[in-house]
Write a structure and sequence with these properties.
Structural class: alpha/beta
Shape: elongated
Oligomer: single chain
Strand order of the largest sheet: 8-9-7-10-11-6-12
């Protein structure tokens, strides 16, 4: 016989649902109530037979919680629901309500072009991943490429795998040869591997770019897209190449493109317009002061700040309440100060005395590199003195300046952040002259300092101990690799047992950095992470750290924001995060940077409420200030009186303040208005009702654990449950390394080893699956079955005998897309109730049926009577089938309306949508409610 999609069959000792890709001889099957991961192909000749779902049996009697447990376990366990958001059931993350806004915007576009510009730490990765997962699930896209910096590739791969079930291949210089060996024939990497995470800097060069453009998937996510656009004449060659690559990708108007950036505007109008042109060429020139222009932009652009979504549609999102900052000065030891003075004198001499402009520029950058390294640590200074200055290889003053700026300054447009923590060189390469001999003397002095008291690191130890006492595990950021290693070694000795210290620097490839951090945080006790700026962007560390210490000042305030953003983001459990800035009171270098840049950045942020990158002429001001220090021996206060320096500084401040004001205005001007909150609320309510609300999850988990004799203790954060009494089958299904007692928290964030009361939590999912599977297995010991398929409840909630049926419906979905019509089989569960006998059933509305789930028992029903009540209903199920089929058809109509509502952009797709119910719903449970004694059972 033939089998149609949606039919139940028996094969290999279990029940399956037939899926649409089946043929007459070969069936594609999913286990009944199972996951897509369990889909199997089975030949009909293997003995496939038609199956019917067994009706409940009157002997399988449970208590009044069984119906609610059964329904909630079904909803939590669904992985293929019929609702309009096809991916929500199968992903391992439960989005906040505000995170559904980009998804709803995307589904209203024929070709998705979306710029997600939410604030740092709000969840742009999840928002972009949601859109991608939905497009892939409904067949609107066949593949996905994520373009990002190499430092973030590993994290993107992990996020896609753990949250969205996507196995992505990394395309990096270190992996490309292995991937190429896996190709078949002439296919490219991107034809062989449909989902990839690609280093933008690797793929942008001409040798790789053309193949990528030719075979790129039809869906691309560009992370940190602001690094891929620039105004004319700004940015280095790398940024230009990135822009050319992304522009070429966006010219294919059939390609879905999702851009993510927390700083899309940054005050540079031309760069912002170039970015908007990637969404739609019209936006590059449209008048955004005009309402119609802003409405056009609103279809593609979403930007929210924390204040916008801290409370959104009656849902609170926990962010840290405040970032507590403090500056901590230190003074150099006499020996260190003496060396600093000698080096400063030498720097002034070499900068003034150079023969020719090229030599002067090389000397200038060498002196600046040496002073910066010496201000960082004696070990960094020693390494600088051992290394030849990179600028010494320059052929012109301009080339020497370009090399020097890239190595010594913290430019916003660093072409290779992976090399940003390398200690710069200051040597000339000539070992025979007097200058070389003086440098060797400085090297010997620096080496001696490492074994003597270092007031800077002593101050650090004091601050770290204070943070640990305050309950904060800190990240200590250093500028150079050598300094980070030096600091980590010192802290390890000074902090003693109970505190584990590890360093993560650019010496580790990106793929190993997260592993090193995981090893650190898995160690019992307190943790201190010492890092360079290779971790300052994109890596999320809020789960394990609550404070940041700036051991070395960055010469760009944006870098400080990036460092602190690693812990100050959604998911941080601490109410307040802390940031400590160390600075040298008497090393002059720190005084200039702190006074002119860092404090000004903070003042602008407090005055305007926004944080913007320092303007491009920041480097010119820094160079002018350092030039004053070296050539005129002036400190920060004296330099502020220098007319030339003063003019450059004021010019920087004017542009900086203007940029902040424009960004503040832009947040209002381009605020998200394309999707109204009430629209989001309606879809969120429907989706969560279908998949199980947080209240449903909490009830299901708590009642199931109580039924399995776990001890439940309520806390302010949720409740704890002991695991020892649980049956072995459930214990084995729980995630490893869980705490015992196990905390089930009401909401994120949670500590390692705890669970959160969300359907996507692995522990919650394991409990729900156990409840469902054990309820369907009447042969199991009753003591380890939290829910049964039948119950008879005496209650004052009814005045006449009322029966509640728990039914599972299957639906056929036809979803038209650009790649063709996709046929799917989906499931839903419903509670239906009627009064009286089955032959004269008076059906109740949905609200009345739902109310029965909360009915409390008022007395017992003797088992023989209970079996009679249930037997009458089970024997009469055939007579109830027409109503069940009609209800299934009604559900199908509602689902079709929901699909049309969220996909209102394309009339062609909306017309082609079809949702039909499979006849013969599965009756999972029969629950009879009888009136309390004295009210009269009817």
């Amino acid at each position: 016989m033939g089998f149609a999609p949606g039919n139940l069959v028996t094969a290999r000792g279990r029940e399956w649902v037939v899926l649409p890709d089946s043929t007459q001889d070969f069936l594609v099957l999913r286990p009944l109530g199972g996951l897509d991961d369990d889909i199997a192909g089975v030949l009909v000749s293997e003995g496939v037979t038609a199956a019917t779902f067994p009706s409940p049996h009157a002997d399988d009697l449970g208590d009044h919680f069984s119906a609610q447990l059964l329904i909630n376990a079904m909803r939590i366990g669904f992985r293929s629901t019929a609702g309009p958001f096809r991916s929500l059931a199968s992903i391992a993350v439960e989005p906040r309500a505000y995170q559904l806004v980009p998804l709803m915007m995307a589904l209203r576009q024929d070709v998705v072009r979306l710029l997600i510009a939410d604030d740092v730490g709000i969840g742009k990765t999840i928002e972009a991943g949601l859109v991608a997962a939905e497009l892939l699930e409904v067949g609107e896209a066949r593949g996905l490429a994520v373009l990002c910096s190499p430092a973030l590739a590993e994290q993107w791969q992990s996020e896609l795998r753990e949250k969205f079930g996507m196995e992505a291949e990394l395309v990096l210089p270190s992996t490309v040869r292995r991937l190429e060996r896996g190709r078949i024939g002439t296919e490219s990497i991107f034809e062989r591997y449909p989902i990839t995470v690609v280093s933008t800097d690797f793929i942008k060069n001409s040798r790789r770019r053309h193949e990528f453009l030719r075979t790129c998937p039809d869906l691309v996510i560009v992370d940190e897209v602001h690094t891929c656009v620039a105004a004319s004449g700004q940015g280095g060659s790398g940024r230009t190449q990135r822009y050319e690559l992304v522009r070429e990708l966006s010219r294919d108007r059939s390609r879905h493109m999702i851009f993510a950036s927390a700083t899309p505007h940054s005050g540079k109008e031309e760069a912002f317009r170039n970015l908007l042109g990637l969404l739609d060429p019209v936006l590059e020139t449209v008048n955004l002061d005009d309402r119609k222009g802003r409405e056009l932009l609103a279809r593609h652009f979403v930007q929210r700040r924390r204040g916008d979504i801290r409370r959104y549609i009656d849902e609170d999102t926990p962010f840290p309440k405040d970032r507590l900052t403090r500056e901590v000065p230190y003074a150099l030891s006499p020996e260190y100060h003496a060396l600093f003075t000698k080096v400063l004198d030498y720097a002034r001499e070499t900068v003034r005395a150079g023969d020719g402009e090229l030599t002067k520029r090389v000397n200038w950058w060498s002196a600046l590199a040496l002073l910066r390294a010496l201000a960082s640590s004696p070990r960094a200074a020693a390494q600088t003195l051992r290394t030849r200055a990179a600028s010494a290889a320059a052929d012109s003053p301009d080339e020497a300046d370009a090399i020097g700026r890239a190595i010594v300054l913290d430019q916003a447009d660093d072409e290779a952040i992976e090399a940003a923590d390398t200690t710069p060189g200051a040597g000339s390469g000539d070992s025979g002259n007097a200058a070389a001999r003086r440098l060797r003397g400085f090297l010997a002095d620096a080496a001696k300092l490492e074994g003597k008291p270092d007031r800077k690191i002593t101050t650090l130890v004091k601050e770290v101990k204070q943070l640990l006492d305050e309950g904060c595990d800190p990240i200590v950021f250093c500028r150079f690799i050598d300094t980070a290693d030096y600091v980590a070694g010192y802290l390890e000795k000074a902090l003693g047992r109970g505190v584990t210290v590890r360093a993560v620097t650019g010496t580790l490839p990106p793929s190993e950095r997260l592993g090193r951090i995981d090893q650190l945080t898995a160690t019992t006790g307190r943790h201190v992470l010492v890092a360079t700026d290779c971790l300052s962007e994109g890596v999320n560390l809020q789960d394990s750290f609550q404070a940041v210490v700036h051991y070395d000042l960055a010469w760009n305030p944006t870098r400080h924001e990036q460092r602190e953003g690693r812990v100050d983001r959604f998911g941080q459990r601490a109410k307040n995060v802390r940031a400590v800035t160390l600075y040298g009171r008497d090393n002059q270098i720190d005084g200039i940077v702190l006074e002119v840049l860092l404090r000004k950045h903070e003042a602008i942020r407090k005055a305007t409420g926004v944080s913007v990158p320092v303007p491009d002429n920041n480097s010119a001001v820094v160079e002018a200030l350092m030039e004053g220090l070296l050539l005129r021996g002036s400190d920060a206060e004296q330099l502020s009186l220098d007319l030339d320096v003063q003019e450059k500084q004021l010019s920087l401040y004017r542009e900086w303040e203007s940029t902040a004001e424009r960004e503040k205005l832009a947040q209002t001007k381009y605020a998200q208005h394309a999707i109204r909150p009430e629209e989001v609320s309606a879809e969120v309510t429907a989706a969560r009702a279908s998949l199980g609300t947080r209240e449903d999850v909490a009830i299901c988990v708590e009642h199931a654990l109580k039924a399995l004799r776990s001890t439940i203790s309520h806390t302010s954060a949720g409740f704890t449950a002991t695991l020892l009494p649980l049956p072995l089958g459930l214990k084995d299904a729980l995630p490893p390394d869980r705490n015992n007692p196990l905390l089930f928290a009401d909401d994120l964030p949670v500590r390692r080893g705890d669970a959160v009361l969300s359907r996507t939590d692995a522990t919650v999912d394991a409990i729900a699956q156990y409840v469902l599977e054990s309820s369907l297995d009447a042969g199991m010991d009753e003591a380890v079955r939290p829910a049964k398929r039948c119950a008879v409840v005496r209650t004052s909630a009814v005045e006449i005998r009322t029966t509640l049926l728990v039914a599972r419906f299957r639906f056929h979905l036809e979803l038209p897309s650009r790649t063709g019509t996709r046929q799917l089989v989906a499931e839903d569960v419903a509670a239906l109730a009627f009064q009286g006998a089955p032959a004269q059933a008076k059906w109740l509305d949905t609200d009345a049926a739902g109310a029965l789930l909360a009915a409390t028992p008022s007395g017992n029903v003797p088992a023989p009577h209970a079996r009679q009540f249930v037997t009458r209903v089970v024997d009469g199920l055939d007579g109830l089938r027409p109503h069940l089929d009609a209800h299934g058809a009604e559900l199908a109509d509602r689902l079709l309306a929901a699909h049309r509502r969220v996909r209102q952009a394309s009339s062609e797709i909306v017309r082609g949508l079809k949702v039909t119910a499979e006849a013969g719903a599965d009756v999972l449970g029969v629950f009879v409610f009888v009136p309390s004694i004295g009210e009269g059972a009817k």
